[in-house]
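Hey, sorry to bother you again with one of my protein questions. There's a protein on my desk that I can't quite get my head around. No rush at all, and the record is pasted right below.
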Amino acid sequence: MKQRGLIVIHQFRPVASGAELQAERLAMKLVEMGHPMQVFTQLRTPDSLPEENLHGIQVHRVEFPLAYDVKTSVVDTFRYLVQNRHSYDIIHVQQAFGHAVTSVVAARTFGKKCIIKIACAGEFGDLHIFSSIPGFNWAVQVLRQADRIIAISREVEDELQTWGFPVQRICRIPNGVDTHFFQRRYPLQFEKRVRFILPGRRHPQKGIDVALHAIRLLVDQGLGDRLEIKFYGVDYPEHDYYAVARELRVTEWVEFLPLLRQ
């Protein structure tokens, strides 16, 4: 039998944001390759099943929250990993918080492998946020013992080295674009106006400036009457994209809107 994987993530389907989709696609691909895959996550919506098989992935949704710091829910998270230690060989953890610390301890205790994937760097990054939580100085020493740390960018890789993670354990793998999922389902009707929507915080990490410059290029190519772009998200005072839009003279094609939650 091929090695069995367990993905540890704070939330999963039906929640489907970036990290959740990345974890799901990774698990689906590994299932295609013949690896038994499980997901260990929290039951967050009342209509979700505690146990469910999705695309060949066995999803376990527990009643307790997975560890976020190194105090809250650490015991529950570790107990689950101990009780189910015979069902997995490799633990893959999305983001480096308390659940990652617990996973590293469990892996080293029972002779398993542990991989941690860092979501991003900078002020919204895993390590920056985790470093503000009591107990981080001890926790980061444990995180450094993970078998592999996945960095999705050079920025993340540099930050990991700054925090003292062994270079030989850092593996840079960009997220890339899923060209199967993001493919055209029907022919484009160019007589209609094409609307682009970009939800997320209005911050350089989300590439807002790149999108604005792209609009400028498209307008310069004579496509201004065919497109518009709407940004749904939260503003940050230090990043004035309204001013950038004015400077690029693209305000006619751009609209900044609040993020709607339902």
Remarks:
- The radius of gyration is 21 Å.
